Amino acid sequence: MAKVRGAVPGGDTGWFGNLVASGVFPMIPSRAREMGATSRKRIGVLALSGAEPVTRLARQHGASRKFVRALRERVRLAVDEAFAEPVSAPLAEPFPRVSEAWVRRFALAVVLIVHGSYRQVLELLRDLFGLALSIGTIHNWVVEAAQRAAEINRAQDLSGVRVQRPITTRRALPASRRIAPRGQRTSDP
Q: What is the mean pLDDT of the chain?
């Protein structure tokens, strides 16, 4: 006599348990838990192809029909996903390809003209062009540009340039009319 899962020894096992216990309907333990990924894929592909009926596949591999149908559905979903058309967002229009030199100029313009931070440059490049750069890259570009500018400035001959003393247009106020900083008193005349 075969043991029935959940049956109480000497107790009533119900009509199904009685059939199993009598040997009329033998319980075959499922081997589905012991199957590896390769076996599961093979069963799912066979079920999806329709080469063999689900019942025969389940019987051959010691699994339930429900298990074989579930494998067939997983294989169907995997095949559908593999051959699905890529969905493009309506707002994600492809931007023309830009060169690295142009991206460097753009980053320098944002930093020097707009006074943007490195993180703002990164955000613009990511949002507008889909470029993922690091803060260090932007920093290196700015440092390189500053070094090139310094070399150009050092190469210029400035001996002919005359600098005049700055002309002050404001005349100094007499001591009696000066405003003292907070907490200090002005000297009374």
A: 79
Closest CA to 111 of 127, 131, 125, 98: 125
- Tokens describing residue 92: 């994600």
pLDDT at 182 over 80: no
Which residues have a Cβ under 8 Å from the Cβ of 54 and sit 6 or more positions away?
Answer: 47, 65, 68, 69, 72
Q: 23-32, 78-87, 160-169: which range is least confident on average?
A: 23-32
- Report how far residue 107's alpha carbon sits from residue 142's, in angstroms, rounded to the nearest whole number: 8
Contact 7, 13 (CB under 8 A): yes
| Domain-wise residue ranges, the chain | 14-82, 100-150
- Please identify which residue in the block is written with the tokens 């591999």: 61
CA angle, 17 then 19 then 24, to 5°: 145
Q: CB–CB of 95/130 below 8 Å? A: yes
Q: Which of 140, 142, 108 has the alpha carbon at shortest distance from 124?
A: 108
CA–CA distance, 147 with 55 (Å, rounded to integer): 76
Encoded amino acid at 17, one letter: G
**Nearest residue to 128 (alpha-carbon basis) of 94, 100, 88:** 94
What is residue 165's predicted lDDT score, i.e. its pLDDT? 79
Which residues make Cβ contacts (< 8 Å) with residue 131, sequence separation at least 6?
Answer: 103, 125
